[in-house]
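Per your request, structure below.
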């Protein structure tokens, strides 16, 4: 079934690519693109089987994400982010999962995980209020996963939680107008004193310790994986896919180009261009190979019901941010070697350059932080981070 999803998505690529100008102009994905990806089953790849999902090998999911991203960075980004959320919901208590998928398997769920929300304990749960930014694809979502803080009597945070909120309880503010990933519709979400029952809450610490309550009903290996690997790979895979697609477009476009400066001549005969292509291709390959290797190793441990060592979790984070760095290095090489033509608004290289750099700004792509975590582990220092 996973292979069928990939084939269906490949059939959709020309139509998705053709809607690029609309996505850029509207600052959100066209409804047709979302409907196409829903029909292909792409959003259900990491969804529990008991709710109509596929529980696919995660390596295959990220392959589909990269494929979509080759023709539209915004579409790949929204697929990747929204496609991970059914997996996260599968870690919530059974009652929450029943609510989310009560009307069928094709519910879309957005997120903004920054612990912006303030949670006040009341009987049976909490009252939630806050305003969150960067909720990609929220216009198309029926539920939202939001980050929140429980504040103690002294006004200090005592716990970090992820909460599920239905569409009726949140408002979308149309504020998204960036330079890149314009079609992701990553608008703000506002919640004002919404009641969140206890079963729609998970502690981030429990999830990071692989003790999420949802595993009681979703015992498959997919749900034994660490959030710090599954989610962060979801913000690297689209960036790598964007650059991979740009590389293919670049090579095809430059084969017949003749220089009008620097003495003229065919572009492909210039050694500098040849070296740039080689370096870019190597960076892309390295990014894909490491991302896939790490996720395959993590999944293999889960399939064997073996403990996932911290060394592997740290390696996955290390290589995830390096994949983004490598993708940026590749796109910068292509952008620079393409010359002045790459500056023209709307050409594939210019759009890919904007999208890749915009995606790199996600906090999970912060290389300094992630690499420092790996260094701590290598030096046998304690590592405490929920994104590992």
């Amino acid at each position: 079934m996973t292979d069928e999803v990939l084939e269906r998505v490949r059939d959709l690529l020309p139509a998705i690519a053709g809607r690029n100008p609309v996505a850029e102009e509207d600052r959100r994905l066209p409804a047709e693109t979302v409907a196409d990806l829903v029909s292909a089953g792409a959003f259900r790849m990491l969804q529990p089987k008991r709710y109509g999902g596929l529980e696919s090998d995660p390596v295959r999911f990220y392959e589909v994400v990269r494929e979509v991203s080759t023709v539209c960075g915004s579409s790949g980004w929204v697929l990747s982010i929204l496609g991970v959320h059914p997996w996260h919901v599968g870690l919530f208590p059974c009652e929450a999962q029943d609510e989310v998928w009560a009307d069928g398997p094709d519910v879309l769920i957005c997120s903004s995980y920054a612990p912006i929300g303030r949670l006040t304990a009341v009987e049976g749960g909490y009252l939630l209020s806050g305003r969150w930014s960067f909720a990609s694809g929220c216009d198309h979502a029926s539920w939202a996963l939001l980050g929140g803080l429980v504040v103690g009597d002294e006004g200090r945070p005592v716990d970090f939680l992820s909460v599920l909120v239905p569409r009726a309880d949140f408002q979308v503010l149309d504020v998204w107008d960036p330079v890149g990933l314009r079609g992701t519709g990553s608008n703000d979400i506002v919640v004002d004193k919404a009641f969140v029952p206890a079963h729609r809450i998970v502690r981030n610490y429990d999830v990071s310790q692989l003790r999420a309550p949802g595993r009681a009903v979703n015992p498959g290996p997919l749900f034994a994986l660490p959030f710090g690997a599954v989610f962060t790979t979801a913000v690297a895979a689209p960036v790598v896919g964007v650059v991979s697609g740009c590389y293919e477009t670049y090579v095809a476009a430059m084969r017949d180009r003749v220089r009008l400066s620097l003495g003229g001549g065919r572009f492909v005969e210039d050694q500098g261009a040849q070296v740039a292509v080689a370096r870019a291709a190597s960076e892309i390959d390295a990014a894909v190979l490491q991302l896939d290797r790490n996720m395959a190793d993590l999944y293999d441990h889960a399939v064997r019901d073996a403990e996932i060592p911290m060394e592997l979790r740290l390696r996955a984070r290390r290589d995830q941010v390096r994949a983004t760095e490598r993708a940026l290095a590749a796109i910068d090489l292509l952008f620079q070697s393409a010359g002045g033509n790459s500056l023209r608004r709307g050409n594939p290289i210019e759009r890919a350059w904007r999208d890749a750099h915009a995606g790199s700004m996600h906090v999970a792509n912060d290389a300094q932080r992630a690499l420092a975590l790996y260094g701590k582990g290598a030096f046998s220092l304690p590592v405490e981070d929920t994104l590992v």
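The mean pLDDT is 94.

Regards,
D.
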